[in-house]
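Incident log entry.

Two folding requests arrived from the same account within the same minute. Monitoring flagged them as a possible duplicate submission, but the sequences differ. Recording both here for audit purposes.

Request one:
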Amino acid sequence: MRAFTGRLFDNAYILMTLTAFFWGGNFVLGRGIADHIPPIALSCLRWSFASLLIAPFALARTRADWPEIINNWRILVFLGVVGGGTFNTMTYIGLNHTTALNGLVIQSSGPVMIAIAAYLVFSDRLSRAQIFGIGLSLVGVLWVISSGDMARLKSLSLNPGDLLILFAFATWAIYTIYLRKRPNIHWTSFILILSLIAALINVPFWIFEHLALRQIQPTMTTLLSVAYVAIFPSTLAFIFFNRSIELIGANRTGVFMHLVPLFGSLLSIILLGEELKSYHLIGFAFIVAGVITTARK
């Protein structure tokens, strides 16, 4: 079993496929539970419970890594605020104020933002094959969300929710490229510190939301939703994502974000009863071809 998990943890393509599946579920859930739990509360509880989940496995490593953590506290706080706190909170707020079509269009820009940010900040270069792969998967995403009619994209108009999601994915691009500055600490220590910072940064905003805007509805749906986002999109997905950056780099990891709308569409079909149509299959083929092309060395 240990040998199997070791091989799994060294395979970025499997890790990122699972990550995209978890995040696809997170996207669908974020739209579906808006009436049960407000967005900042969901983000804060997500990271709070993620901290509790990882803590039993991370405390010993964190104590050993503490001198390195103190010496590098600035970059750790930066990554926690940008990658955990800001990105997820802005995404959840945006999903309360925009359509699924708009949100998926904006989400599909994630890999492109990562590539541009890496070029502007660190002068990373993209190969022609990577540029072609990003283009392929972007076409697939746009084909799916436009239901096979690209003309529908012309009718999109940005609203405040769209702008929040656009800002969220810009912060995610920054987080992704700055992971190379992560201190040399164990991955469990890193995820624990990241989760704690992301939770703490949202506490004052959650208090404001609770007092001035909306409160959590104490239902079983709320409980199960918080459990899902704490275990899968937070703890496991962030472990897998950060490990993939170590294995194949930011640009090749980033293109797997195109799988998120693919899985999101599949989950909508399975869970919401939406009909599978030919444009889904065509778009999925483009997305998978783009991911394979870009992920190659």
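Request two (distinct sequence, not a duplicate):
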Amino acid sequence: MTEKLNTVLINFDYQGYELIKTYLQALDFLTVSDFSDDIKTLQEKILKERPEIVIVNISEKTDYILNIVSKILAVHKNCKIIALSDDYSANTVIKVMRTGIREIVNYPIIKDDFLNTILKLKNQNIVTKEKKSRVITVFSNKGGIGKTSVAVNTALELANITKEKIALVDLNLQMGDITTFLDIVPSFDVSYTVNNLAKMNPEFMLNTLECYKDTNLYVLAEPPSLEKAKQITPEQITNLIKLLRETFSYIVIDISPNFDKKTIAALDNSDLILLVTMVNLPAIRNCQRCLDIFDKLGYDANKTQIVLNRFMENDEIKVDDVESVLNRDVYWKIPNNYFAIMSSINKGIPVSIMQPDSNIAQSYQGLAVKLSDNILKQNFAQKSTRTSEFNFMSLFE
């Protein structure tokens, strides 16, 4: 008989405890060992007995409870915590994720949603969970759209919110400037890394990438010269991404705006493409052309999501118009805040650090939350494969 998963309930009165316990009786792989209406009462016991699952109600005393949860997770790293809350606002979700909690469910509980969350934890194999990694490439085939700002700020927010290791990779091989945006001078770059793939292991990989300040964001810089950029091959890019997956939970790639074999190698190996555009006719037309090319490349529609940058509510062209022309829903809108973003770029400080309360910083936080597969369960498309006889020039016919 398989050993049952030990589960503890926190911050519930007796009636709430009995209801949840009744729901959990439908699951034969776990057992409820204890409950309390005060997290402080069970904190020491949790750290001593190490239950696999803790279910905590954060509807009241939210900050107090989350502070204690973060202390528990700092010691009991394998504990899976499910937060129940009657407040599902973006602000609360971000607070929850920053403590290390990866699941949040509405309270009062909807039984099916609650049990499905528990089943998802079981299916992930709680104790020996297989590491999953996602590659998110930020792309636009038109310069000046702001894709590097999107890549840098989104990657940093993913690191802040998920507390997992995030790689930010500059594959804009000839004109990359992520290091400028972050005001860093890394010891190594992508050309060095791809030429040393044979001896790469997770420890070597972490030492090769530049850790940004005191975060979990690791940066792989652009090549130092055009000559070194030319020497990088599509095969090396494919192998690089495969190795990065072994170390990082998320890999965010800023890539060249050109369609060439190197760019397509990165796009092929991506789980999600954020196609960045603006609300004006030339940008929308270029976005439409990108979508046509992605269709020729055989990408599933779910693989590409539209991000509107520098968005203004009073634009003459409305979001509905954009969605109608592109025949796609807009995935995210980043507000136009010229002064905040230009000051950020000129100082080499991400906007979420320099102006964390600005509308644009809040938008990047929201985008990072949406990208996290722990809160919104994305069904990103699988990598596309093509035969060796694939005709690259057919994309432009």
